Amino acid sequence: MYQHCLTNFKAIFLSTTKLACLFLLLSISEISVVYAQDPIVYSRCERTTATYQLTGDVTVNGQTQTVTRTMTGLDVYDVLPDVTNFLTNFSAPCDLVYRDADGAETVIFNCSATSTNQNACAALDPAVSFDGKTIAFSVFRGNLTNYAEWGIDSRVLHPDAEPANLGTKTLPNKRLQTTGAHLHFHTIATGKTLAIPFTPGVYDSGPAFISNSR
Fold first, then answer.
1. What 3-state class would DSSP assign to 133?
2. If exposure means fewest CB atoms within 10 Å of the residue's CB, which of 40, 49, 88, 177 is most exposed?
3. Whole-prediction pTM value?
4. CA distance to 44, 89, 167, 214, per residue, from 51 (Å)
């Protein structure tokens, strides 16, 4: 009798587990469909992938020697606009990308293809109109400079080195030194973008819609 009850319990448990797994799979598939139906617009900024050869004189056990180390993972020095880099000195170039409901992506504004060290840009601050037809965004303009890290400790080169300041080193990370920003309006249906003329020293950024027409 007990063996029969145990067998029935196992069968019920396995059936319930299968139903729960099936329900979970169906729920996940439905969630993915819902998310796929929502177009999005976002900014993408070039990540630093280059390495840097750090060389310096360090003292280990009383002996001075020249050590070189290949520094990787330098994208930790990449920054996006924040409270300390609000209008300038952030990583660039940056593109604005529209992803439709089917997952197809279109570059609305391509700063990566046109930027040089002397004339670079970053397309940021996208805002979508309430009817979903228009995207407003800001394009920051300026020149690119390499980020300089100051006060590098000698123990970066050798863990047993006597503490010493290796000075300032210029890294391959690019930062945009802006001279201004101007607004752009992209119509999704036509793919056309209207740009407000750029005026140096003027920062038109952070657009926000207050109605479908304003």
1. coil
2. 49
3. 0.79
4. 21, 21, 19, 46
